[in-house]
Design goal:
Number of strands: 6
Oligomer: single chain
Shape: extended
Strand order of the largest sheet: 1-2
Helix content: 40-55%
Number of domains: 3
Strand content: 5-15%
Largest sheet: 2 strands, antiparallel
């Protein structure tokens, strides 16, 4: 489902500038949603996503779950027996956001730990000014995770 969305954004080059041709050929920014509805360009993509937000949320959650589980392949497979848990995650997240809250595990501040269902600890860390400082910051944060400071 991500590829058709990417096609809608083809008018943007690598720097984010708008373009109508690529290598002399016109840019084809059209695609199709899973229900067969066609779109052409970012405005029509947005309109389609707004119309069927639940499909988008479910798809993104499925792809992120497959990634988190280290599932390889183009589609990022999540198995049928895992889908009830995935749907619950999506429903709970949507209800929380609609009620004005934030989904569980989404940090607001840098350094706040993100809880996962796999006994992992993920910490949002902004990049440092230099690569050397960044490596030092990651080492320091890693030590804090290992010592249990984020539990």
């Amino acid at each position: 489902m991500f590829d058709p969305f990417g096609f809608a954004l083809e008018n943007f080059d690598a720097t984010g500038a708008w373009r109508t041709t690529d290598g002399g050929a016109p840019v084809d920014a059209s695609g199709t949603f899973s229900d067969g509805t066609r779109f052409n360009g970012p405005a029509e993509l947005r309109a389609g996503l707004v119309k069927s937000r639940h499909v988008y949320y479910a798809n993104v959650t499925q792809l992120l779950m497959a990634y988190a589980l280290n599932r390889k392949g183009k589609a990022g497979r999540v198995y049928d027996y895992e889908m009830p848990a995935l749907r619950k995650i999506v429903r709970d997240g949507i209800r929380t956001v609609e009620a004005g809250g934030r989904p569980r595990g989404v940090p607001l501040e840098p350094g706040e730990p993100i809880r996962t269902h796999c006994q992992d600890t993920v910490v949002k860390i902004p990049a440092a000014a230099t690569p050397e400082d960044d490596r030092a910051l990651l080492r320091h944060t890693g030590r804090r995770v290992v010592t249990g400071e984020y539990r």
